[in-house]
Amino acid sequence: MCGIVAYIGSRDAVPLLVGGLQRLEYRGYDSAGVAVVGRNGELRVRKAKGRVGQCLADLPARFKGSPGIGHTRWATHGEPSDANAHPHVAGTVAVVHNGIIENADELRAKLAADGAVFASETDSEVLAHLIARAQADELEEAVRQALQEVVGTYGIAVVDAARPDRIVLARNGSPVVLGIGEREMFAASDVAALAGHARQVVHLDDGELAVLEPGGFRTFTLEKRATTKLPSEVGLDEESYERGEHRHFMIKEIREQPAAVARALTGRLDTRFHTAHLGGLNLDPREARAVRRVKIIGCGSAYYAGQIGAQLIEELTRIPADAEPASEFRYRNPVVSPDTLYVAVSQSGETYDTLTAVQELQRKGGRVLGLVNVVGSAIARQCDGGIYLHAGPEQSVASTKAYTSMTVAFALLALYLGRIRDLSPDAGRRIANGLKALPGQIERILAQEDRIKEVAGALAEYRSAFFVGRVRGYPVAREGAQKLKEISYIHAEAYPGSELKHGPLALICPERPTVAIVPDDELLAKNLTTLGEIRARHGRILAVAHTAPGPALADDVILVPKNEPELDPILLSVPLQLLAYHAALALGHDIDKPRNLAKSVTVE
Ligand code: G6P
């Protein structure tokens, strides 16, 4: 999704902007551009369709300056093209914008009637014209006035060649983070772009503007009220944002899972009382005991992790729990009840559907916990408490380590809620020991990469596949199908094994293989029957199992170490990530940037 970077200071902004934009490439985009104010006060703009490296490669030597702003665009209004790329310029003003201006058509008509000439089809360009036409001495006042006219979401950065001593930023629904340097200031839509430049960051809130000058920053609201912001230290380790020796970020992140899971568990297992210690929940035991339902919301892989979380919570606490896509939840006027605990799950902490669902819940009195990876992100700040995943930066569009860490965080939450209710100390110990075993067991799955690669090569020959699993295995199947779809573009559909005979069995044939999740649990016999049903229709089967079902029932098997039954879904998901990765690799796809997808969807 769109990315913003900005710089003001004594250095030339261009290489810093280009470097920052390259850090944001993982979010997905179709065009890029920069604008800087040159030494003689002239505005220099370069923007084009394509990759950052291409469109900003051959800038002339005189293309230098500060302040500067840069952008990667993901088309919403108007096709990907040079003209629609940001920055957009009106007079001496240049603007980059993330989000959607809903009343753009109306504003465009008004501005055009007033003589404004538009160079693009974008909603964003109206912002440049509104700012350029505002009657104000200061740039921040011009931006503030322009924003009063606008309905919609935005994260913006604005420079004015006539007022080159500052950059103005504003946020409403699209993230903006300020980075504090030594006599220089940075800003971006994502901390990834600030890595290596700033140790301290400040997150803008919705309805806030910021003025950056080389020596510092000020923030205030749309109503002109000054706000106080406390900078936070962020472990912006540059290396964690680099691909290193790995071919793709996705495989790097898959391989980082043992360490990520170990981090998610660090300091959180209480060996004395066999429970979890979760400092950020902001929920005292009495309140936690009063919870009668748990409702989990998230999008994409976060939603599937939420389904695993709901199972874990029901099994360990006997509190009814379910998960729903946040994107659906927010549109159906949900019933919000005070004795329900709501949990929002998000890697980025910026997914617009999830954030607005949280806001809607809170408006109706719901208490929301956040399971979030990015520290200080909008959802993390919006929630009433929560659990940080500590998975480290995740850059591949297809979520792997963050997904796994989400499931681990749910297991911790379920253990905690269980132990203050009916879960026995013995059962608590069993789960805590199971959790401790996860990093080593994930290592053992990763050690089978060569074998999984072979199986994936065979899967890549098909155009369509089924994924089946029962109860605990069903969300695993859904996430497995999602991974395969996202990066290999092979059509994949997940079904509960029990539902196969109620419809999809009609499609079983030699041309459509099935990936079956077959844990050694109380449903093993049922799962084996399902395999038999598929084999009887000459369907090929790849079983992801604890014990090989035998050649009569499966053509291929990937064996996964056994943990406790409740925790098995966490491990069963890992080989499916490798399966999707190697299938996509065999097909030669752009794995870290799959077509049509973005890392975090910060628009409606
Ligand atoms: C996008 C990504 C998915 C991701 C989902 C939720 O759709 O392509 O991979 O699972 O957003 O993202 P979040 O950051 O909220 O976990």
From TrEMBL:
UniProt feature coiled coil, ranges: none
Active site: 2 (nucleophile), 599 (for fru-6p isomerization activity)
The entry's keywords: Aminotransferase, Cytoplasm, Glutamine amidotransferase, Repeat, Transferase
Enzyme class per UniProt: transferase
Domain SIS: 283-423, 455-594
GO cellular component: cytosol
CDD domains for the chain: GFAT, SIS_GlmS_GlmD_1, SIS_GlmS_GlmD_2
All copies of domain Glutamine amidotransferase type-2, residue ranges: 2-215
Molecular function terms from GO: carbohydrate derivative binding; glutamine-fructose-6-phosphate transaminase (isomerizing) activity
InterPro entries recorded: GATase_2_dom, GFAT, GFAT_N, GlmS/AgaS_SIS, GlmS/FrlB_SIS, Ntn_hydrolases_N, SIS_dom, SIS_dom_sf
PROSITE patterns the UniProt entry points to: GATASE_TYPE_2, SIS
Free-text function comment from the UniProt entry: Catalyzes the first step in hexosamine metabolism, converting fructose-6P into glucosamine-6P using glutamine as a nitrogen source.
Subunit note: Homodimer.
Protein name as annotated: Glutamine--fructose-6-phosphate aminotransferase [isomerizing]
